[in-house]
Amino acid sequence: MPEIITAENIFNEIKETIGENVLKQKSVSFIEGDKADAVTSQFKRLFGRQKPIHRLFGGGKSADVLLWRNKKISGGVLAGATAIWVLLEWLDYHFLTLVCFTLILGMLAQFLWSNVSGLLSSRSASKPPRLVVPNDVFVDIGKSVGAEVNEALKFLQDVALGGNLKQFLIVVGSLWAAAIIGSWCNFITVLYIGFVAAHTLPVLYERYEDQVDSFGDQVLDQLQHHYRKLDTVLLSRIPKGKLTAKKFE
Asked: Contacts by 229-238 with C-beta closer than 8 Å and gap 24+?
C-alpha cells in the first residue's frame, strides 16, 4: 500500500526542516575572509541564480530603490504607497477623488509660490518648478507590460494546446488557488502587498543570502520529494493526451 500523502504530513515535515535549519544556523559560526567565500560557494543559489541581486534587477536606479541603496528615497516610495493604500482602503477615497485632490494641492502650491515669493523678496519673483514626465517613461512602461502580458499568454496557450494533461491540471489548479486568494481581498490590496514584498524581500534576501539559499534548498528538496510521491501515487496514472496542435511562431 502506498503511503497516504496529506497536507498535514507535508506541513509537518516542512516545519521540521525549518526547525532543524534554525538550530543549525544558531550553532554555526561565520568564517571571515577567504574561508567565508569558500563556504558561500558551496551553497546552491536560489532558483539557480548566478548573478548578484543588484544586477538581476537591472543594476539601475530601480535596483537601487528596491535594494535600499538610498534609504530616504526607498523609504519615501514605500511610505507614499502606504499612504495611497490607506486613503483608498481605510478612508474609502475613490481613485478619481484622490487624483483630483492631488492636482488641486499641486496647483495651489504653485499659485502661492508664484505670488507670495514676489511679495516677500525684493528681488524678482522666482519661478516655481514645473513637473514634466518624459514620454519615454510611458513608452518603456507600455513595452515592459506588453512583453510580460504576451509572455504569460504564450505560456498559458502552450499549456492548453500542448496536450500534457498533467501540466494542464497543475496550471489550472494554480490559477484556481490564485482566484480563491483574490476573493479574500480586493485588487488594490493585492497590488499593495506585492509592492511591499518587492521593496522588502530583495533587501532581506541580499542581507541574509547564504542562510536563505541553504534553507530554500532544503525546503525545495522536501517539496520535490513529496511531489515525486504524489506523482507516483496519482499523477503518473493520469493518461497524457495525444493531441497535436499546430504551433504558430
From this structure: 229/2, 229/3, 229/5, 230/5, 232/2, 233/2, 233/5, 235/166, 238/165, 238/166, 238/169
241 within 8 A of 163, measured Cβ to Cβ: yes
Locate 126 and state its grid cell: 522666482
Nearest to 105 by CA among 131, 81, 125: 131
User: Is residue 247 predicted with pLDDT exceeding 50?
Assistant: no
Q: For the chain, what's the residue count?
A: 249
Q: What is the DSSP string of 117-174?
A: HHHH-SSPPPPPP-----HHHHHHHHHHHHHHHHHHHHHHHHHHHS--HHHHHHHHHH
Residue 60 CB partners (closer than 8 Å, separation 6+)? none
Instruction: Please write the tens of the pLDDT for every residue from 175-215.
Output: 998 888 878 888 888 889 989 998 898 888 888 887 887 88
Helical axes 187-207 vs 71-85, angle rounded to 10°: 160
DSSP string, 34-84: HHHHHHHHHSPPGGG--S-HHHHTTSSHHHHHHTTSSHHHHHHHHHHHHHH
> Of the candidates 218, 82, 240, 75, which has an alpha carbon nearest to the alpha carbon of residue 163?
240
The count of other CB atoms within 10 Å of the CB of residue 230 is 13
